[in-house]
Amino acid sequence: MDDGLSHEVFLFDGEEEFLAGMVPYAREGLAAGERVVAALSEERGARLAAALGTDARQVEFVDIEQAGRNPARIISMWGDRLEGPGHEPRALRGICEPVWAGRSSDEFAECHRHEALINLAFAEAGSWRLVCPYDVSALEPEQVELARRTHPEVWEQGSAVANSSYEQPAELLAELEQELPTPDGEPTRLTFGRSDVSSIRRLAASYATSAGLGDERAADVMLAISELATNSVVHGGGEGEIALWKEPGSLVCEVSDSGTITDILAGRRRPDPAGENGRGIWIVNQVCDLVQVRSAPGGSVVRVQLRAA
Amino acid sequence: MRNNGPLDSAAGLGTSDHACWAYHEDDGHLVPGLEFLDDGLRNGARVAYSADKPMEELRADVAPLEDVDALLERGALQLFELDSLYGVGKPVDAAGQLATYQAALEDALACGHAGLRVLAEGTTMVENPDMWDAHLRWETCIDSYMSGRPLAAMCCYDARKVDPQIMGDVACAHPLGGGEAGLAPFRLFGNDGSLGVAGEIDAFSVEGFRRLLSLAAVPGEDLALDLTELGFIDHRGVSAIFEQARRTAARGRRLSVREAPLVYERICELIGV
What's the CATH code of the domain at B269? Predict the structure, then answer.
């Protein structure tokens, strides 16, 4: 295996095929002394655990529907597992299913952006394998087609085979940068500057409460909006505009300003604990259920969605 | 929790209250200040007034109080030229100054007064940036001493003459503030053995918070932060607390946090501290 990430798509049809592939893949990792992590839905994870028997005890299971609800968190999640306690790289073998049937079309687009970006994020990381299972019996063909374009390798009978359908991330990312849908109804819109960040934060929190989000989620809303508004003030031309609206079971906030976000991986890698740079947007990704960043010279828009629970 | 927050009026302050008052016109400290002293006299406290002025001007400033001669005669009112208290132009020595206030409070109580209430015009104490840290240390030191004791103070500053940065920091070092809304995004104050933090700490206020926290930390003592009234703190503020915790630990002491708001807990969980 080459240096860096081997990012493999595994197209499976039915649970039997899934287990027939992933059980030996996980066991092979355990036998080689690798850290094996399976980020799957709780249900699929339980089935894999049952099939692995006692070997399952050595596998870390992550509920992807929680941890990867916002796909922009997944790179950071793998980054954490790739480093040992002293930041030394460790042998890692992952299974990750970020794309599951039932996600919204906005979520699908962000999932595929994530799948393209992870190739860039770990281009120079120690060698490790990440297999992404796509359930072809449950997903629309369109989603499966995109998966073929974001994975440099295809998982075939245990081996990583070069994927001729793979596309360089830059072009694909541009294609996936669709215009954000117009909100239903009339959002509350306000412009803000430095002295308004505090009131914007409180407004967003009270909006969250009135949208039925509860105190803990209202605290998350404050954290996210504070960081986005601060970014606009500090890096985005000194001022910005916020739009807030409710969708069933969630609150959506959009912050726009005249700045440009040049780092396409911004907020996707865990920031250096010693510094504070880059922490803001990472925190936004951690607390939000979906984050959509659209940035071009002359202006940026960040739309975030927070669900009730 | 100690009385804290912005003030609309100087009337009705309690026996341990500590207010900062920023004013914007000549002798603008006298309207709130005399109201503050008058309240104190009615409650049986000894009141004191100090400003960087000669005695006869101090005397003229307090003339609106009822029967000033009798008040001075029976020691219910004392006047101090600022220079005699602090030595104008030098950084304040917090420990020495605290001893002076301790003695003054004990004397007031021994003379049968219910407590001591001080109106201090301090503009000249922060004119020189070299004096800022010492002044902030002094404010946090006397503030902790006042908590739970019958000592109240109103510290007035002419905002036209004071650098906005130190004006903001000074306002944040008082539990109460009047005269200008928005000067203190947060407040750090003594609260019965702990340090209370109220208000909001974010990218725009964290620098002042980091500075005040380090000045308020007394070497050789544990530091307890009570965050009951903290409305918001971001990752920068949490990092400032953890930096202080490391400095305190390096001196063999412990920093503890109680009643942290949800945002604080959430940030700790996320950044793994």
Answer: 3.30.750.24
- Number of Cβ pairs closer than 8 Å across A and B? 51
Place of tokens 């909100």: A183
Domains of chain A by start residue, with CATH: 5-176 (3.40.50.300), 188-307 (3.30.565.10)
The interface predicted TM-score of the complex, written ipTM, equals 0.92
pLDDT in tens, B159-196: 999 999 999 999 999 999 998 878 999 999 999 999 99
Spell out which residues of chain B touch residue A195, defining contact as CB-CB under 8 Å: 182
Is the pLDDT confidence value at B158 over 70?
yes
Our CA-based measurement puts residue B258 at a distance from the nearest CA of chain A, in whole angstroms, of 18
Q: Which is it for the CA torsion B122, B124, B127, B132, positive or negative?
A: negative
Q: Do A226 and B272 touch (CB under 8 A)?
A: no
Identity of the residue in B182, B202, B262 whose CB atom sits nearest the CB atom of A197: B202
pLDDT surpasses 90 at B209: yes
Contact A223 B271 (CB under 8 A): no
Q: Which of B44, B233, B93 lies closest to A226 in space, CA to CA? A: B233
What stretches in chain A show pLDDT beneath 70?
Answer: 1-2, 84-89, 275-276
Residue finishing a domain among B182, B210, B231: B182
Does B14 share its domain with B90?
yes
Cβ separation A223–B234 shorter than 8 A? yes
Closest by Cβ to A283, choosing from B185, B232, B235: B235
